[in-house]
């Protein structure tokens, strides 16, 4: 039917179903987008596995968006035109909490991310406030779907205040870690990438990693001591979310170092507090990204420095989404990014 659209829904943990819903109409201040590509991310995987405490079911996942402007609601600025290629900042902010009052909108206490606390973009169409729409015709449709996941790593490096003086260890070379490697390299830092998968480590090299360590075959501590002449990295970015990688970050960072934590660990983690105090560490979380991070990623992609096919593990149509997600569950180390084409 003309006013119906196809949607991908996680009906319950472990079950993805293709349904139809009514096509949305843009309200005042909103833009109706025709979705082109949407990426599956780690939060979608957690939702599929029933491990995301923020998700209720059924839920339409997806917040890594490539789309085209289909229709403009009232009171939308004239700079937006039908047919423009866009991506979307998928977070909300309340404007009232302490994070918002400091203009750290990415950490809003009341944030609702598309595909997590509210239905996402894995649908034929989605209507969003114009303030969240970023138009960029210089990027292709696949690149636009990679903007948001890259921003998370960019933001983490900004939080770590990385400069060309630093040696940065990135633990975990999936999509988020890849973005952190790119950003740290752009800052002029010496970058060390650690992972358990050689394919991802090769991609880390292409992103700008000066050194790579396979922590299954190599001793992480010994290799870091060799590379840093016994000092340890001055910044560690944790992009995995496991107890052992959190502990490694604290243990391996240099004295007076900074640790930036992106990954969510589902289990409680024990630390030796002596290391926090003795090293006088700065340990910080890093959540989502700010508009400036989106602008930085878009500039990077426009410079033509990235072959996006190096990051895309698979492109599927909606009917194949369930099988693709199950494949990711069975081979988590082999997937960088799965895109769904609408």
UniProtKB/TrEMBL annotation:
Keywords: Oxidoreductase. CDD domains: Zn_ADH7. Residues 27-134 form the Alcohol dehydrogenase-like N-terminal domain. It comes from the Bacteria. Transmembrane segments: none annotated. One of its GO terms (molecular function) is oxidoreductase activity. The keyword Transcription does not apply. Pfam families: ADH_N, ADH_zinc_N. Residues 176-302 form the Alcohol dehydrogenase-like C-terminal domain. The keyword Thylakoid does not apply. InterPro entries: ADH-like_C, ADH-like_N, GroES-like_sf, NAD(P)-bd_dom_sf, Zn_alcohol_dh. This is Sorbitol dehydrogenase. It comes from Prolixibacter bellariivorans.
